[in-house]
Amino acid sequence: MGYIERPRRVVRPAQDLHTTAGPEPGLAGPARVPGRLADRLRNRSPELLKAVSRLDAGLDDTARRQLADWIREHYEAQHHTAPVGYVAKCWLGPPYVDHVLDLFGTILTHYTPGDVMPSPYGEARMLARNASYACVEVYSDGLVLPVLTNGSVVRPGGRSENQQ
Amino acid sequence: MTETDYALHRKVAEVSRLVVQVAEQVGHVSGQVTAVEAGTQQTRTELQQLRDEFRAFVDQARLTAALQRAETKVGVIQDQLDHEFGHHKVVRRTAVGMLQAFDIGLVSEDTVRMVGDQLMLQTPRYWLAPALVALAAWSADDPALCERAVQESFRRSPDRTSLFFALVLRRQGRHAESTRWLRHYLMAQDPAALGREFAVILESVAQGAFGAAGRGMLRDTMDEWHELLASDEGAEDAQIDRWRAEIGGLCPPVAADEFPFLSRVSPQWPPLAQVLSAARSQQAVLDKYTAIMNAEHTPSSRIEDAVDDILDRLVSEYDNEELPLRRDLAFQQAVVAHDGDTVRAKADADADSASYDETLDYLTVQSTAALNPSAIGTSEATRRLAVAACRDWFHHAHQAVSADYRSAVPQDVWARFDATYPIGSQSFTLPQWGGSFRTPLPELQQDLGAHWDKHTAPFVAALGYRYTSKVAVAALVAVIGLFIGSAIGGAATVVIPLLIVAGAAIVINQGASKARQVQESARVLLGEAKRDAQHQLAGASADLTTWQQAYAGADAVEAAVREFIASLSTATEAGSPFGGRTVPREGTQA
Q: Are B205 and B381 spatial neighbours (Cβ–Cβ below 8 Å)?
């Protein structure tokens, strides 16, 4: 200290720009939140998404029932609760725009724009028309969970999630 | 008899002339009444316009008054801050000045000591004053005084003192001691209630100020805290909500002028406007955060400068006693920023209120450094790291906002027409008509046209002249005239009823032609109104198509935003000094 001037050092940013890649957001492993909602919000596995996408692929009734059973079991094992069904865009063309895949009755019902979709599916209708989601799950308590193509689940907005 | 007839004839002719005169006058008066009605209608329209303009003026005046008040208050609060805490500024400036004076050895020890002592006397209760005395004592090699001064400073603000000395020692190249102070500081922290000075730690991470030893310790501690706090659902939800508010605040308003017809005829316009506004926030989010992440950041070329910058932030960070004033100042500044709109300013200030709390949890510090760095006094470089650290909440908030507006798109958009049109002395009210835009436009227009015709036809017909009642009265008067005429006898028996019939015919004819005119003008007016309604319907249909294109375009940006947020995980620490700094001696190559 005092009056002695110390040698100057030249400080430069690192030359090696090694990136420390963290996990992609939304894929940060299982949600750490305990409780029922947390189980539902856990990421969907790729096999599950693939199975769901095959549900409306023009299978015969028996095959579809088997697939639905498998999906339900998978949900119950991984996420404790299974959705009652899905709302998805319908590829049959006019007049149909979307359809409901009932996971329990394994029924496929097509709807035209003018038809009113029964509760609790109605809420999911406009979400299903968006191509960003792999599928839109509908639960018996009215909860609607869109699932992104990478398997992560969109958390419901507002404070309603804490009421579960 | 002939004479009587003649006299009677004259009188009847006189009466008939008077009747015609009266009829003319009535016609004249009726014309005047119509003119007055038109005048009244015009006055009413003008009054309505005046009222609208007056309301707009009152709103504008209120905003202007609020803006001026806020501007004045900003000045007052800044004065008050200066007045009450201005003397702290001198101490703050002196602290860094003293360190720099040590570096280049331009100031004598006596002066340093004198300034230290003086500031100690002038700023009671302020933690930095004894810290300066300690620095002066250190440079004068007086360990006893130095220790007492450090203890006093530590007593006044343990956290800030620990950080201050950690940084000063780091600046002087005393790594081991610096890390000891840092550990001291970190051990005493509760991640759920960090002091406001913690932002400096984030800043040091961004600037790479603590060197290799401190870096590892900080990373471990912060990872542990993040893990600990993230397990609490409420804490994480609070951060997600904060990010949602941030995204919500970026929604550009959609003006009704953009879709003039749709906004006028569709009852679904408010949700349509909201959905489009929310969808357009995607581009705003992308622009804002790409700019933040791509901002050129030039780290200081000397570690001394980097630490001095951080010290500046540490000492100039608001002390707790300044917070109430600072909070008020932030609100008033928000009012100024929103041109006097106190409601929006309040929403902004509320969303950001956590930034001005005395203690913050670690997650809030991260969010604040990302969303409102000026509130805790961190730099843009820190902001980049903080945004990346908050990527999980950003992602969840962004997805929730996107899902919210997507599900809020109205399933069915309607057009609705119902209006009242003044037609002369009467007004025509069109019963409500509604049609969904799912129906093809030609069908809709036809349906609307049919609705108009169905309701205008009886209205126009009702404006027609009521011959029956008028003729009946005329006939009755003629019969009475016949009786009187026959009572008088002679020619009067024929002449009186004939005259009455002639007079009545004139009156009826005049009334009928007037009614025909009214009917004709009503037909023209209503025809125009019908064409206008059909024109509006077609316009609204075109507007809806434009809206759909605008929405699809705005919503398509969501994928880019999602990709951008995902990219934050890889872009985090690359190029930041935290990634490692090379510190060669002068004259050697890196």
A: no
How big is the A-B interface in CB pairs under 8 Å?
154
- Please give the pLDDT value at position B258: 87
What pLDDT is stored for residue A59 in this prediction? 66
Q: Assess if residue A2 is contained within a domain.
A: no
Read off φ and ψ for residue A138, nearest 5 degrees: -125, 130
- Name the helix (H) or strand (E) containing A50: helix A46-54
C-alpha to C-alpha distance for B473 and B376, rounded to whole angstroms: 92
Stretch 77-96 of chain A: residues touching chain B, C-beta under 8 Å: none
Q: Which residues of chain B neighbour A135 with C-beta distances below 8 Å? A: none
Give residues with Cβ within 8 angstroms of B153, minimum separation 6: B127, B128, B129, B130, B131, B134, B161, B164
Containing structural domain, residue A59: 36-151
Radius of gyration of chain B (CA): 43
Answer yes or no: is A160 within a domain: no
Q: Are B407 and A127 in contact (CB under 8 A)?
A: yes
On whether any CB of chain A is under 8 Å from the CB of B366, the answer is no
Ranges of H-type helices in B321-418: 323-337, 342-351, 362-371, 373-376, 380-389, 391-407
Note the pLDDT tens digit of each residue in B161-189: 888 888 888 877 787 888 888 888 888 78
The answer to the question of residue A16 being in a domain is no
Whether A95 is in a domain gets the answer yes
Number of domains in chain A: 1
Q: Which residues of B touch A125 (CB under 8 A)?
A: 411
Residue B57's pLDDT is: 93
Confidence of residue A10 (pLDDT cuts 50, 70, 90): very low
